[in-house]
Amino acid sequence: MASQIHFLDIKGKSLLSRDYRGDIDTSAIEKFPLLLLELENTSNSTGSATDDSNYRPFIHHQGVNYVFINHNNLYICALTLKNENIMSIIIFLSKLVEVLTQYFKHLEEESIRDNFVIIYELLDEMMDFGLAQTTDTKILKEYITQDYYKLIRNTPSRVVQPPNAVTNSVSWRKEGIFYKKNEAFLDVIESINMLINANGQVLNSEILGEVKIKSHLSGMPDLRLGLNDKGIFNTNEETGGSTNAKGIEMEDIKFHQCVRLSKFENERIITFIPPDGEFTLMSYRLSSTQFLMKPLIAVNCKTKVHKHSRIEILCSVKASIKKKSTANNVEIVIPIPDDADTPKFVPEYGTVKWIPEKSCIIWKLKTFPGGKSYHMKAELGLPAVDNDDNYILKKPIKVNFSIPYFTTSGIQVRYLRINEPKLQYQSYPWVRYITQSGEDYTIRTK
Amino acid sequence: MSLEKKIRKFLQGPRKGEAFELKNGLVSQYKHERKDAIQRVIQAMTLGKDVSSLFPDVLKNIATYDLEQKKLVYLYLMNYATTHPELCILAVNTFVQDTEDPNPLIRALAIRTMGCIRVQKMIDYMEIPLSRTLQDENPYVRKTAAICVAKLFNLNPQMCIEFGFLDSLKKLISDPNPSVISNVLNALYEINDMYISSNLNKELKLDILVLDYTLIKNLLVCLNECTEWGRLTILKCLNDYDSENSEQANHIVERIIPQLQHINPAIVLSSIKTILKHLVYLQKASQTSILKKLSSPLVSLISNPIPEAQYVGLKNIRIILEKYPNILSKELRVFFVKYSDPLYLKLEKLDIMIRLCNENNFNLLLNELKEYSMEFEPTLISKSIKSIGSIAIKLPTSIIKCVNLIIELIDLKGDELIIDESVGVLTMILRKYPGKNDLITLILPIIANNFSHLSIANPSYSSVIWLLGEYPNYFTNISNLLNEIFEDFNDFGSQLKLNWLNTIVKVNLNSLVKQDFSKLLQETLTEITENEDDVDLRDRAYIYWRLLSSAEQELPKQILLAKLPPIDSSIETYNPVILNDLMSELSTLSSVYGKPSYTFISNQPSSFFKSMDIDELKAQAKQDIIENVKNENLLDFDDDFEENGNASEGASTNSNNLLDELNDLFSNSGSSPASNTSTMKSNTDDILSLFNTLNVTSAPMAQPSQQQSQSSSNNDNKVNNDLLDLF
């Protein structure tokens, strides 16, 4: 998969490297900063300096392929000579980032320098001879840790052994877990991404749903999850007959590796042995081809620019959700010109803040009952002298919110059966629903 | 103490003492001091300092029960073993002992590290520990040992075979543990790759990895029990297996389909690839139903949070779309550009969107493109406008809407970039629909009005020159325009000059033009024939001059006013041979480079050229030509106005024919010496371009393009054969 793996700073200087195969000269990575610069410079010749259209996450140079991802001002780069599966390299590198982030909380230059010993150990365990091995943090933490002393003291035989899970078919759960109170918390979280044009028309929308589980269960429990999904329950008379249970057809369902995929494909049943602690059981997507939704939070924003003197913003926001529901922590991020100053805000409700370093104002509404609408007026001064007459604000307005006890798609958990064949304990499943804004709930400005 | 001194002391002081201090620490009588010193040695190593001189002292610490310390010493050994090969033997004893340790973690660690010490002497001691660990009771040790066989093969293939490790590895393929199986497969794949690229005696044929259906059936069972990385290896195997009948193919496809739901996009993409490979064995009806199932997994590739993975997804979607154009026909909205996307993703999404555009959704897409054209990234703007043109050329019904949109864009924000791109796109549209009166009267006034914003540096400047020659009677102020352009003639590059020459000749020949431009023509011809350095250009001017002064009245018109055949599409496509190669290499590096692996991967990177035999050279040269023709093609899309469309015509419509001809040509030239291939290649290219130009200029009017291509390639063929005879 990869011959070498390197951690590099933003300029391409190597921070930590591991050579797995010795088939690529060590000097190859020294060329990386130059190549990176070249990537950026070739685009400069076409026009603007900020344009990085030639940037690609891979470089081919003198027979060596550099594949890299960018994370927190770091480059994590894999080198290979062969025509390898680039998708798996990129996913491996991102898993590496994920694991290290879980180990050190933040993966950045400093944490790499401070933890080089453990990074080497992890690199060795996650990849051997350039072949990916174990990338599950929970399992890795079983036998690789920063605190060896504690690990050895807590291990019965005083000898740290590789957990069976590394090679078992259930490679995500160790044996002998015990809880006094057996509980499973189920969160159904739907993130809404929406692209709305200036006239309030929805151009594109999608629901990215996730079912997250926090399991505090003893032994090796076998779980079975029932949802009101049409694709899963089309044979179920009960749901088919009742009128109020809305059947949903989910697209593009992805499961955690613990779910028995073939069982789902053949019998449409979600069964699994959960990992211990928190994990994402499944994710799904509902796209606008299925139903084009109205905006949940509709924003209408009028901006009036008086050149050389001020800019006026008149913004109204409406929550088009059920009267019973309430949206929490609504934030409307309105972009303003970089050089605007002296803000004056008149919100009908909530607070408005000016964030000059991000060139935006944020209108915060702590709670927002369904069906209500609010207005806000803002006025900012503009410098009298300017050299850039382009006041067209192309940056879209972004909205953040979360609505508890509500799923947009109408998905519901019908049951979660927990069965541990040996221990036969009582267990308590809990379910929560949340709808929230996704990364891209944006409204375009004119 | 002055600051300077302080700094100097800070810089010099520790440097001198550091090695000494470390050395002392390493031989300290206290355990914790030794461990601390080792850690600092590794730290220095990480920072790129050379600490190889401490090798003997570090080695003394190898015998320890502290797992962490052991790992650190092993790590040091792996890095610096090659600097002190003779001392490595001192470590052998510990390694061999460790492979008998009761703790599997230590057994695996020892065998893993032994394989990584790339010292020949070490290999002699590997036999016993390796064969022992290959039969270890713990699967974690077995899978590590399996990989170690590949490491050994890398160091010394002969020994690996003689000691029978290869055979024991092959036996391990029926291991009960899925993670061992997947690593055995990995190791066999590695060995296979090394064997192919090595100088081993190929007569001694090694069947390293034989994929038969019994094995495949086993792997299919394994697929659901493996870790995600193991699944990838198994999918690779399944992809390499050629199913013998539709029943087998069906079975394989059915077993892979559940994997489309895996969270790891690499598995999703590999599954798609493998399904597509086996799909051809199935019946038409089941093919379409399976293709339908692939659309939402494909889309899921671009909802991944990692932009780099999205990019790879998009690149692969682009290839799959070319093979199966209807697979995503309803999914246009998913590809809408997000404001927060990195630029390289935005451009790639645009590329996919124009491919998905059809009669039903082009209105939606045009609205989006309008938004993108108002963004601030110049590359995005120019690509958006080009995309509008591509839609107009792809869908005749959309054309008025597209042209109106471009006009609107010029009105809204008519800066140089937008005008430049718009003029280029409008010219392309006219080339697709030549002679449509309403279109011409709609487009040409806009171009004439905005011409003053363009300068010689803009690519579309030459488009305007070409249009002046093609539709002179539609420009009301043609004489002003021509005079204005001619003023800058001395600043033109040779392409622009050629373009201008063609235009001015055409304007003079066109009977619809009432004004007389013979003075400009005379000045141009004199200027070029007397002062021009470019031989081609000068020759062209001479030819025109003679043609114009011949007694024949109609012949020059027939030749010079010949209409170009309309362009088909401005969306780039792959050559079918290359497309097939790319389809078989989906999700690999070649999918993102957009070229088959043999063009950029060498089996032996160090001694690439020495070892290549004539066949390989031929293949490479052939590939170069393919690439060149392709490149020319790409260039032509942008530049063909500059050449007055003449040269591009041949190349863009006939590239396939040309390639076929070239292929024939190479089969004839098997005996040509290797060193000549490259010179021949460049000759061929020159001649190709030359013939294309000449051929078109001298072709009689209204000759179908098919015939033209035929004759041009025949000519090429002849000349090339002549060239070959020369060698």
Automatic annotation (TrEMBL), chain A:
InterPro entries: Adaptor_comp_med_subunit, AP2_Mu_C_sf, AP_mu_sigma_su, Clathrin_mu, Clathrin_mu_CS, Longin-like_dom_sf, MHD
GO biological process: intracellular protein transport; vesicle-mediated transport
PROSITE patterns hit by this protein: CLAT_ADAPTOR_M_1 (PS00990), CLAT_ADAPTOR_M_2 (PS00991), MHD (PS51072)
Keyword Transmembrane helix: no
Matches recorded under Pfam families: Adap_comp_sub (PF00928), Clat_adaptor_s (PF01217)
GO CC terms: clathrin adaptor complex; endomembrane system
Alphabetically ordered keywords of this record: Membrane, Protein transport, Transport
Keyword Membrane listed: yes
Chief location of this protein within or outside the cell: membrane
CDD domains referenced in this protein's UniProt entry, alphabetically: AP-1_Mu1_Cterm (cd09250), AP1_Mu_N (cd14835)
Alphabetized SUPFAM superfamilies for the sequence: Second domain of Mu2 adaptin subunit (ap50) of ap2 adaptor (SSF49447), SNARE-like (SSF64356)
Cell compartment(s), UniProt: Endomembrane system
Residue span(s) of domain MHD: 181-444
Family of this protein: Belongs to the adaptor complexes medium subunit family.
PANTHER family given in the database record: AP COMPLEX SUBUNIT MU (PTHR10529)
Protein's recorded name: Clathrin adaptor, mu subunit
From TrEMBL, chain B:
Region spans: Disordered: 640-682, 700-727
Keywords, sorted A to Z: Membrane, Protein transport, Transport
Coiled coil regions, renumbered to chain: none
Membrane listed as a keyword: yes
An example Gene Ontology biological process: vesicle-mediated transport
One Pfam family from the record: Adaptin_N
InterPro entries assigned: AP_beta, AP_complex_bsu_1_2_4, ARM-like, ARM-type_fold, Clathrin/coatomer_adapt-like_N
GO cellular component, one term: endomembrane system
Organism domain of life: Eukaryota
Location relative to the cell: Endomembrane system
GO molecular function: clathrin binding
Statement: the UniProt record of this protein carries the keyword Cell division: no
SUPFAM superfamilies: ARM repeat
Bilayer-spanning residue ranges: none
Low complexity bias spans: 652-679, 703-721
Record-stated family: Belongs to the adaptor complexes large subunit family.
Biological role: Adaptins are components of the adaptor complexes which link clathrin to receptors in coated vesicles. Clathrin-associated protein complexes are believed to interact with the cytoplasmic tails of membrane proteins, leading to their selection and concentration.
Protein's recorded name: AP complex subunit beta
Organism: Candida tenuis (strain ATCC 10573 / BCRC 21748 / CBS 615 / JCM 9827 / NBRC 10315 / NRRL Y-1498 / VKM Y-70) (Yeast)
Phylogenetic classification of the source organism: Eukaryota, Fungi, Dikarya, Ascomycota, Saccharomycotina
